[in-house]
Amino acid sequence: MSRRLLLIILITALLLAGCAGTTENGTATLGVLRSTDHGATWTYVGQAHMPDTTVWAVDPTGFTTNGRIVLYFVDLGHLDQPVPQTIYRATSMDGVNFDTPQPVYSQPLTMVDPFVLPMSGSLFRLYVPSEQEGIISAVSNDGLAFTREDGIRIGFGEGGMPGALLLPDNRVRLFLNGANAGQDGIFSLISDDGLNFTVEGGMRISAPPTFIIDNAQPIRLSDGSYLMLYQQLDPDMLDKPEPWTYTEIHLATSMDAFNWTANSTIVGYGGTSCIVETAGGTLLIYYVNR
After folding, report:
1. Other residues' Cβ atoms within 10 Å of the Cβ of residue 44
2. Rounded CA separation 244/246 (Å)
3. What digits encode the pLDDT tens for the residues 187-235?
4. What does the DSSP assignment read for the chain?
5. Cβ distance 74 to 58 under 8 Å?
């Protein structure tokens, strides 16, 4: 079992012991940050509200479509339990108030850190680490129900916490955290079909000495440039209570989706997170803060 999955199980135990935040609308685990100046400054706008439900949303990933923000996430309360593991979907018009989470993909093995990529031809592809297997994929015509695709995209232990971009030439660049070419950080792989990947040379973002970085969440902005949210953590903090409170949220920028400039500014602190851009250019970050 990976250190990442052990950390998830630790957080699960803390939440089940009563540490989960709640709102009048149900369980709240996702905080929301908003920027209206292209990421220069950020404002905390509260917790993401979902109707009363037993689903505890963590590991979010998302995008906007038809004026709605769409988030996909796993259910923290049922991770590592002998029940089908499920990825859920919820949508919002204002970025804070979401509808009831709906299941979109289930399987027997534990899944963490999903990433859903809108593809050409109105397709959606899910990339998700599956325990004991590696990173698998599933495809959907509507983003509401996913069917697993044959094979394994990335082998077990070869990289984790996927993020992806559909490039202008319809290739897919997949970002993973781990070691590549003797360095640690976030590296990339490229694919012509979104299924068969080849590792690209070098690191997209190198980890600073004594730190780990992970959770690459890249998006293409409306102006054609690219923005990537990622996280940085001192590994010694993993053994402390509520380690997500020590996890730094950072941003990196790129013009070509290959060469990235990391910003040392700490946007905030929190667990697995994602970033989306609304039709009006507002940026929203969703992150685990309970």
Report:
1. 12
2. 5
3. 999 999 999 999 999 999 999 998 899 999 999 999 999 999 999 988 8
4. --HHHHHHHHHHHHIIIII-EEETTEEE-EEEEEESSTTSS-EEEEEPB--S-S--EEEEEEEEETTEEEEEEEEGGGTTSSS-EEEEEEEESSSSBB---EEEEEESS-B-S-EEEE-GGG-EEEEEEETTTEEEEEEESSSSS-EEPSS-SEETTS-EEEEEEE-TTS-EEEEEEEEETTEEEEEEEEESSSSS-EEPSS-SEEPPTT-EEEEEEEEE-TTS-EEEEEEEE-GGGGGSSSGGGGPEEEEEEESSSSS-EE-----EE-EEEEEEE-TTS-EEEEEE--
5. yes
The pTM score is 0.90
Count Cβ atoms within 10 A of the Cβ of residue 209 and give its class: 0-12 exposed, 13-18 middle, 19 or more buried: exposed
Is 86:106 a contact under the CB 8 Å cutoff?
A: yes
Give all domains of the chain, ordered by start, each with its CATH number.
Answer: 3-274 (2.115.10.20)
For residue 259 the two structure tokens come to 């060469």
Size of the chain in residues: 290
Question: What is the structure's pLDDT at 26?
Answer: 44
Of 48, 29, 146, the closest CA to residue 99 belongs to: 48
| Dist CA 274 CA 57 (whole Å) | 13
In contact, 152 and 143? CB cutoff 8 Å: no
Structure tokens at 31: 């905080």
For 105-134, the pLDDT digits (tens) are: 999 999 999 999 999 888 999 999 999 899
pLDDT over 60 at 86, yes or no: yes
Neighbouring residues of 54: CB distance < 8 A, sequence distance ≥ 6 = 27, 75, 77
Contact 54, 77 (CB under 8 A): yes
Distance CA 113, CA 231 (A): 13
